[in-house]
Amino acid sequence: MTELISVAQAEALVAEHMPSFGSESVPLAQAAGRILRQAVHAERDQPPFDRVMMDGIAIRWQEVLPLDFALAGVQLAGMAMQTLASGGACLEVTTGAILPAGCDCVIPIEHLQREGDRYRTVEGYQPARGQFIHSRGSDCVAGELLLEPGAIIGAPEIALLAANGFAHVDVARIPSIAIVSTGDELVDVDSPLGEGQIRRSNDIAVGTALQLRGLARLTFEHVTDDEAATRATLTRVLAAHDVVILSGGVSMGQRDYVPTALEALGARRVFHRIAQKPGKPMWFGVGPDAQVIFGLPGNPVSALVCAIRYVCPALLSAMGLSHARPETVCLAAAMDTHAMLCSFVPAHVHTDLQGLAMAHPVPSRTSGDFSSLPRTHGVVQLPPGLGPVPAGTAVEFYRW
Amino acid sequence: MTELISVAQAEALVAEHMPSFGSESVPLAQAAGRILRQAVHAERDQPPFDRVMMDGIAIRWQEVLPLDFALAGVQLAGMAMQTLASGGACLEVTTGAILPAGCDCVIPIEHLQREGDRYRTVEGYQPARGQFIHSRGSDCVAGELLLEPGAIIGAPEIALLAANGFAHVDVARIPSIAIVSTGDELVDVDSPLGEGQIRRSNDIAVGTALQLRGLARLTFEHVTDDEAATRATLTRVLAAHDVVILSGGVSMGQRDYVPTALEALGARRVFHRIAQKPGKPMWFGVGPDAQVIFGLPGNPVSALVCAIRYVCPALLSAMGLSHARPETVCLAAAMDTHAMLCSFVPAHVHTDLQGLAMAHPVPSRTSGDFSSLPRTHGVVQLPPGLGPVPAGTAVEFYRW
User: Could you tell me if B7 and B187 are in contact, meaning their C-beta atoms sit under 8 angstroms apart?
Assistant: First the structure.
């Protein structure tokens, strides 16, 4: 039996053995949700010209304003720059247009009355010099750093990429991941159930956790509890994937063929068993071509806890995601800690009226019980050996 | 000019005019992230049989235990139920197996030594009656309600669906959405820029906000500032979509053809202009075949604020998503409120060491400034007329 290592040691060892999965260039329309892998600088000043901010007229400001302005032309959004020749005249302008040469003030249409070819301001209206002009370069100047590598590309990021001419963008390549379930007792979701059999669910649950984090290059395999079959399947998936995730077959039993099959194929065990509950039997290693291999326990809650605590953060971090700090929540109830093992306890989290994230523990009835998990949002991490911890204690939280 | 309505009135009017977009049955492998539209009951007891929780041997418990047990057979996971005939014998068992008939105790392999055809317990080991047995029905019983409609299908939900035989599942149909940008000044991301032109970015930014919430049935169109072209495009997109989102063309200008074109096509205006900043010019209406139509302002920050404040929550709620309560955060700095308008201020949100979500406002330099948005996570909503609000005030928060 191997030594138990701590959660922090397991996390560090996984990170240490993670490859970079590289980057790829994708069309902007496919970049949503991806991890940015390049710096983005401003293509030009923003706005690129003194920009009209309201529909109305552009004029040359004077201390004492004329009562009306002769309409001398139009400057619509998208048009090349027009010029206002006379100080007593005006140009019609629309939002987004270049401010015409010779103008330094925009009067919105709400404050104007049109009379034939002239615009008259409503009585008592006093515009300010420079009003409703979004000055060239006031948001950013050409060359300014707008985005750093490591961000997830959401709506604000994609707006900047589009506005600055990035038709393609470098993003983290998504590693190809095989999820291999093991166990003679497991049948497909649509198969008849024999005596002693249950339906396969860990593989798709772990796959969903990955997919909802953008890790969607997934293939699924199943092997029975047979040494030769286990070895043949592992050979095949190791040849074709960056990451192999195994569900089950990593406990201490004589028929847990996964660790021995992996080692026979040239995979190197980095650790086996973590001082935690659930999830103690987790196995982690590196394949002959630097593939990373996660052996998750077969218990549904354990498999999911190990997937969200180790697999997902490590992959996203290796892909270059920055700021992947765990969430902090506040315990809504006092809890006991285990003397030797780090506990992961399912919890319902809600934000109270002050903005405080309160975690209500929903302990599983047994370590195999996943029927209560949908009432929860993830697990709180309770380090070992703290004795009883009071309500109000801040703890790390990992979302499903 | 139409009356300004409040944010709460706008939200209620949008909700009131939203259709149900129906449901559809999808294979389980495509259900991740979708909104569940059916109740899910347990197919059978969980566990479906008294289930062995450890690899080892199963025995019949006795007050005074024999020193060793004759091996009488095996009960592997997936096998039909075996029977232990003699009280002094044992069956080898693996995790997940049915507890053999005649047994009421499992001894893990760690506490055993094998000697030929016998298993001997390590010295001083005292098992408890019933240990390491996960009793039939202890997690849930057949017919028990496991999932209610309205949940987003994440890892725990998909595990239960798979375990209970749902090869297909009823989920909310995703409405088909057209995003139509307007404006002569706008060019494609990969086009050369003429004088007075800028690149189109609002459409893809709004599309990204939708897509990252699972609203991914999107088509994009662009129309120039031309009344006939606007009308032709709107006719076409209204015929083919449940939802039409317009970016720009809804201000007060003479060349804002969108509201008049929509009304000419039989669309009914529900409201135009909300007492908020930014986003005041927003238009909302209903098409001739009950399509919902959102006219977002052309300003990048305004368009995105209206998309995340009105469009996304309304669509998700109409699709049946439950618990779509806004987030609450705590202001990290004192802020002023506007006398008449609800302010939406971009903010960086981080969770402090106690689990409290602190919002640091990052005001835009101008209302057209989106270059600073990537440093923020969304907008805080500051109701009008509160005067200065102190740091520590709890406010609603809407994520990008």
Answer: no
Nearest chain A residue (CA) to B297: A95
Residue written as token pair 């700090």? A325
Is the Cβ pair B368, A205 closer than 8 Å? no
Is a pLDDT exceeding 60 seen at residue B1?
no
Quote the minimal CA–CA distance from B47 to chain A in Å. 8
Confidence of residue B132 (pLDDT cuts 50, 70, 90): very high
Q: Read off the pLDDT of residues B44-78 as tens digits, 9 standing for 90 and up.
A: 999 999 999 999 999 999 988 898 999 999 999 99
Which residue on chain B is closest to A209 by alpha carbon? B155
Of A269, A361, A378, nearest to A326 by C-alpha is A378
Q: How many angstroms separate the CA of residue A371 from the nearest CA in chain B?
A: 7
CB contact under 8 A, A76 and B357: no
**Alpha carbon B70 to its chain's center:** 55
- This complex has an ipTM of 0.94
Among B residues 18-57, those touching chain A with beta carbons less than 8 Å apart: 28-29, 32-33, 42, 44, 46-49, 51, 53-55
Which residues on chain B are in Cβ contact (under 8 Å) with A255?
Answer: 55, 76, 94
Six-digit token string for B2: 């139409």
Question: If you average pLDDT over every residue of chain B, what do you get?
Answer: 94
Identify the residue with better confidence: A392 or B365.
Answer: A392
In a 13 Å sphere around the CA of A31, the CA atoms on its Cβ side amount to 31
Residues 290-309 of B with CB under 8 A from A: 298-300, 304, 307-308
Considering only CB atoms, which chain A residues are within 8 Å of B32? 207-208, 211-212
Share of chain B above pLDDT 90, in %: 87
The DSSP H or E segment spanning B331 is strand B327-331
**In whole angstroms, how far apart are CA A332 and each of A269, A350, A397, B351?**
39, 10, 13, 17
Q: Find all residues with CB under 8 Å of B248, minimum gap 6, and list them.
A: B181, B182, B183, B202, B258, B296, B297, B298, B303
Distance from CA of A252 to the nearest CA of B (A): 7
Read off the pLDDT of each residue in A240-244 and give the average, rounded to a whole number: 98
Identify the closest residue of chain B to A160 by CA–CA distance.
B371
Is the CB of B204 less than 8 angstroms away from the CB of A139? no
Kindly identify which residue of chain B lies nearest to residue A184, measuring between CA atoms.
B78
Say how far apart CA A200 and CA A203 lie, in whole Å.
7
Average pLDDT for B115-126: 94
Mutate to test the interface with B, among A199, A273, A296, A398 (most CBs of B within 10 A): A199
**C-alpha span between A347 and A335 (Å, rounded):** 12
| b/e sequence A345-373, b meaning 16+ C-beta within 10 Å | bbbebebeeebbbbbbbeebebbbbbbbb
Tell me the chain A residues in contact with residue B166 when contact means C-beta distances shorter than 8 Å. Answer: 189
For residues B142 and B6, give the distance between their C-alpha atoms in angstroms, rounded to a whole number: 49
> What is the Cα–Cα distance from B201 to B80, expressed in whole angstroms?
62
Q: How confident is the model at residue A1 (pLDDT cuts 50, 70, 90)?
A: low
A184 vs A198: CA distance, rounded Å:
10
Tokens of B62: 């006795």
Cβ atoms of A182 and A296 closer than 8 Å: no
Instruction: Residue B254: list chain A partners with CB under 8 A.
Output: 55, 92, 109
pLDDT of residue A252: 61
pLDDT in tens, B206-263: 999 999 999 999 999 999 888 899 999 999 999 999 999 999 877 766 677 888 899 9
Of A32, A76, A185, the CB nearest to B78: A185
**E-assigned strand segments in A7-149:** 23-27, 40-41, 51-52, 56-59, 68-75, 89-93, 105-108, 112-115, 118-121, 133-134, 145-147
Band of residue A312 on the pLDDT scale cut at 50, 70, 90: very high
**Which pLDDT band holds residue A259 (cuts at 50, 70, 90)?**
confident
